[in-house]
Amino acid sequence: MSFLSKSKTFFISLIITYILLVGVYYFTSVGIRPTTLFLQMRRYLPCALAVAIAVSAWKHAGLNLNKLLPHAIVGVAWVLVYPICYWLTYHSTLTFIDKHYDESFGAYFFAFIVCLRLLLIKWQDSRIIVFGFGLVDTMAALIPCLQLVYFANYQYPITEAASIALLQTNPEEAKEYLLLNLGYFGITATVVVLILMLLCFVHLNKFHNNSAVTLSKKYIAVAMLICLATVVYGSKMFFNTGVMQTYVFAKEYFEGANRFKAYHEQNFADLTVSPSEPVFSKPSTVIMVIGESASAYYMSAYSDVKNDNSPWLKSMRGNDNFILFNHAYTSRCQTVPALERALTEKNQYNNKEFNQSVTVIDIAKKAGYETYWFSNQGYISDADTPITMVAKTADHAEWLSEDKSLKGKYQYDGDLLNCLKKVDPTKNNFIVLHFMGSHEDCINRYPQTFAKFSKPGEFDMVLNYDDSIAYTDYVLREVYKYANANLNLQAMLYFSDHGADPYRKRNPDAAGFKALQIPMFIYVSDEYKQLFGDSVAAFKEHRNAYFTNDLMYEVVCNLLQIKSNHYNEDESLLNSSYKYTREDLTTELGKMRLVDDKEPRKAQ
Predict the structure, then answer these.
(1) Which of 8, 65, 566, 589 has its CA 20 to 30 A from that of 334?
(2) How many CA atoms lie within 13 A of 559 on its CB side?
(3) What is the Cα–Cα distance from 518 to 203, expressed in whole angstroms?
């Protein structure tokens, strides 16, 4: 009885911790077998032991158990937050959920921080020590807090898609996102909350009247052992926790994409294209314009909407040189995954990897064109996205964000018109224009003097979106006019990376079909029609065919009228042998089928 009495704190801590860990795992899992549950029950035993030993040592040192509160708050937050958020989101749709690392890390963090505090017991009254532990608790609590805020905002746990979006974001986009979602008041309030959170943890870590507290050599040795063990095992657990795993996957994705640079030279050398020179009567230009966040569902050129936000494109429906495609969809409602497929051989329907794929720039080069890439998107130099890597292979690549004359100003897609003046009209040119289009915070996508539907300078999600679409329509018209007059324009292709729904808060993991339907058109010159009459007839025949933009690479090959060892004609929407139907096609990288779209646009 004496042993049990002395060990009461140890056993109570062990039992409570073990029940908490196993209970959370059991109730937030789906479809696990009994053998899996028993395995985790064994794995959680060392976690619970570490916690119980730390608490017992704390009690033995004569310290009040209520001083464990700040560390317990952080540990329990890790145990509960991600597993519950994930379960709430997916338990009704997934047949298997087995998330167990967050619980382990929460327990190991608690044991580590308590034992570390015990090892520094001699300096318990030091302000530096108190502040240090308060800071560590605050930093450790940030990820669960961030997860709670994200879940409250999107009703989703933080996912790989969110981490990819974070890693591909440049400082300007991050600033716009924060201002759009929080505003200056919200940003200030967030900073204040973080400061208050730090002060609270610092206060909870203060000790009073404990100058005589000491720890025996035996418990010092135990504390050191627990610290060492929890650092070794806890660090492994940390990078396998829910939120950190999404970051690891996203980082691996970009590292894998970066291998594109190593493989590209050989891929390009192996590429054969014929003819190797354009067959037009004089130097000519082909332009590909990549839009951003433009949804055909909300464009007057495609749908019966309140505001005529795309009058030029709408008027081109009656022009025999223009073909508007009525059933184009994105492959993913996120820029990088969508465009790494649109710009290369990689698509939803094959097993090709991005770093092993040939690009539209490669095809154009081999077909005898001088290649240009002009972008109003952000340039990320330290962690290039697949889009940037493709862009850099062009003979000439420029980003407006790097233009010193535009520093400190909003860069608009109209500024890309000046870039066209740098193109040599005496050469055959393939030009890619990458618009900012209707990217979030649409009010910043057009000069306020251009506002047609919203009031200048006034935030209105829907009307700002209409104005951004209208501005894109205007810039497309100006690109067409300039290239037609100055660059012997033979063909012009426009499509959006993905769409958006101005009536819904954007979520990287949940996009409805309204945000997945995209605009797409092709212009061909009279000479092009004369040279390739049968092809143009096929273009027009397929204006109502279904299509996903990860097949855009094949469209470019077809538009350039080439043959290649890296081009499958039956995957080109423009080819008479196009093999895909609505029943075959998917979006959101295979998670959604086009046949499930209950509101497809009617053929125009």
Answers:
(1) 566
(2) 27
(3) 54
Any alpha helices (H) in 402-498, and if so which ranges? 416-420, 461-486
3-state secondary structure 43-91: HHHHHHHHHHHHHHHHHHCCCCHHHHHHHHHHHHHHHHHHHHHHHHHHC
446 near 467, Cβ under 8 Å? Answer: yes
Q: State whether residue 521 is helix, strand or coil.
A: strand
Token output for 244: 């950190």
What integer pLDDT is reported at residue 382 of this predicted model? Answer: 42
In angstroms, rounded to a whole number, what is the distance separating the alpha carbons of residues 604 and 601?
8
In Å, how far from its chain's centre is CA 504? 17
**Of residues 498, 492, 472, the one with CA closest to residue 550:** 498
> Which pLDDT value is given to residue 124?
73
Angstrom distance (rounded) from CA 416 to CA 437: 12
Total number of residues shown for the chain: 604
Q: How far is CA 604 from the centre of its chain?
A: 33
Three-state SS sequence of 237-293: HHCCCHHHHHHHHHHHHHHHHHCHHHHHHHHHHHCCEECCCCCCCCCCEEEEEEECC
Which helix (H) or strand (E) segment is 554 a member of?
A: helix 552-559
Question: What type of residue is 53?
Answer: I
**Per-residue pLDDT tens over the stretch 298-319:** 999 999 999 999 999 999 999 9
Map residue 204 onto helix, strand or coil.
helix
Helix (H, G, I), strand (E, B) or coil at 370: strand
Closest CA to 393 of 492, 264, 499: 264
d(CA 255, CA 261): 11
140-163 per-position pLDDT tens digit: 999 999 999 989 888 888 877 777
Sign for the CA dihedral angle at 501, 504, 509, 513 comes to negative
Task: Express each pLDDT in 2-12 by its tens digit.
Answer: 444 567 889 99
The sign of the dihedral angle between the CA atoms of 399, 400, 406, 410 is: negative
Give backbone dihedrals phi and psi of 490, rounded to 5 degrees, phi first. -100, -30
Instruction: Compute the chain's Rg from CA coordinates.
Output: 29
Query: By the 8 A CB rule, do 343 and 552 touch?
Result: yes
Alpha carbon separation from 42 to 16, 21, 75, 82, 168 (Å, rounded): 15, 11, 20, 22, 40
CA distance 141 to 70: 10
Shortest CA distance to 320 belongs to which of 477, 488, 483, 537? Answer: 537
